[in-house]
Amino acid sequence: MSEESSVKANQWRLVEVGRVVLVNKGAYAGKLATIVEIIDHKRILVDGPSTEVPRQAVPLAQVTLTPLTVAKLPRGARSGVVAKRFAESGIAEKWAKSAWAQKIKSRQVRWNLSDFERFQVLILKKQQRYEVKKALAKAKKASA
Amino acid sequence: MGRLQEYEVIGRHLPTATDPTPKLYRLSIFAPNDVVAKSRYWYFMKQLRKVKKSTGEIVSIRVIAEKRPSKVKNFGVWIRYDSRSGTHNMYKEYRDMSRTAAVETLYQDMAARHRARFRSIHILKVVELEKTEDVKRQYIKQLLVPGLKFPLPHRIVKSKQIFSASRPSTFY
Minimum mean pLDDT among A6-10, A115-119, B2-6, B30-34: which range? Predict the structure, then answer.
């Protein structure tokens, strides 16, 4: 074998103190929280003072790990410390900029469109399609 | 409120001519309601002292609420339980937020592993293990490692679609 192959280890998102987590189910669905302590293999103690998630034990099945982490969070930190470190790490801004959060937002916007707004979207998409096809036809003609 | 609550039940033998001020006895009982708590109190009192419900009285029954429900604690539980062919002592450890939660998990655990029912189990002692050195069981010790972190590999996402253009990815 003349080629060198390298095996790269997987970089999973880790369940750890400080990991930011998106709550899927329950009263706080769709909100961010931070892992404050790991209870056991299936449960975590989670807290989101700045995102209105009260401190509680949550099963890992009801939660999705995000790629964000809150830095310098001590194990079992109380809500005040969690809020401070959350703000220091700028999680809210990082989350809002992420493609994931923007997709969630656009899904919400689409779901809440009124009939007239949907009509407007139709017209705008048609205009976009027309411009794209026009440019494509021109390019084809120029190269042919 | 979960399935169980912790009650502090204090009772005594009724006063008689020979003993006008009998001793008070206090038990900590885990039960779903106060009716069961009082019943279990008499069950244990009868085993330990010469008193029964008709010759005694319950002086006080209080619900003991968890002091720090948002603190994760390690509990050591001493039990005595009846198996099909004898009665045994056991020591188990649980990591949970409250005494009642740990005891509920204990009952489920005993039912699963030893087919022991509520009636066959006596909870002797539930102690919060404050120091990490006091934890004896490996299955709890492994969770007390400082800087514990682990991935959740091979994530299986329940698909909301019946048909999909691409195979799902299990990477998390």
Answer: A6-10
Which residues on chain B are in Cβ contact (under 8 Å) with A76?
71-72
Cβ(B129)–Cβ(B92) under 8 Å? no
Q: Quick check: ipTM above 0.95?
A: no
DSSP H/E element including B41: helix B34-48
**B12 vs A19, A77, A138, B37, B53, CA distance in Å?**
53, 44, 99, 15, 10
pTM of the model: 0.88
Q: From residue B11, how far is each of A19, B4, B32, B114 by CA, in Å?
A: 49, 21, 19, 33
Q: Determine contact, residues A69/A39, Cβ cutoff 8 Å.
A: no
Q: Please give the Cα distance from A58 to A32 (Å, whole number).
A: 13
> pLDDT tens digits, residue range A57-102?
999 999 999 999 999 999 999 999 999 999 999 999 999 999 999 9
- Closest-CA residue of chain A to B139: A40
CB atoms within 10 A of CB B31: 20
Nearest CA in chain B to A35: B149
- Is the CB of B72 less than 8 angstroms away from the CB of A14? no
Sign of CA dihedral A65, A68, A73, A79: negative
Mark yes or no for CB contact B150/A15 under 8 Å: yes
